[in-house]
Amino acid sequence: MRDIAILFDLDGTLVDTAPDLHGALSHSLNRGGREPVSLDDVRHMVGRGARALLEQGMMATGGMPEPEVFEALVADFFTYYGDHLSDNSKPYEGVRSALEAFRAAGANLAVCTNKPHGFAVQLLKDLDMAPFFTAVTGGDSFPTRKPDAGHILGTLERMGHTSGKAFMIGDSDNDITAAHNAGLPCIAVSYGYTEIPVRDLGPDHIIDNFDELVPLLTRLVSGRA
Description:
Blueprint: E1 5-8, E2 15-16, H1 18-31, H2 39-43, H3 50-60, H4 67-83, E3 90-91, H5 95-104, E4 108-112, H6 117-126, E5 135-137, H7 149-159, E6 166-170, H8 173-181, E7 186-189, E8 205-207, H9 213-222
């Protein structure tokens, strides 16, 4: 798989981060005098970044507060989450073995997430996954973020990928739309964080488990799929 670039979303694709995001959101909602939302609710709110997650939590528990109150809660959320990034987050089944197989085959790997870059880098370090990737880009890495094609194209540039095939692996409409906007095929996981079933979002391929990804990409690269 040399000359092949594979970009991965992070939350809901590589790593189940919902438990720690839920903890941070619950903390900030409590600070704002709001009731908590459920972990399942959070799994449907993740994907557009931490600030958007807090906005959705606010809307689900009574509406947006005054701007200065919200900004204080945003700062509180970031501080708390930064201290609890990897308390309960873990890679999904099959992820590590797939990354090892891709690395052994010479593929160029990167993370392209709407999570703030600093959080993404630290989480990958905490989970001992950082060495797999030649680039990690977050929602604050470029002027635009997924679903804008610029996020994908900027990540490819940081990977040093100038020729050969490239693929996006994600779990939500942001990933699928960004990939297609950038002219890349998208493989979606069925288990991720999305309100709309991923099968209704138009990915090029769907996998139910990461163990399916290596053989699928092998077929796609060889033209046998």
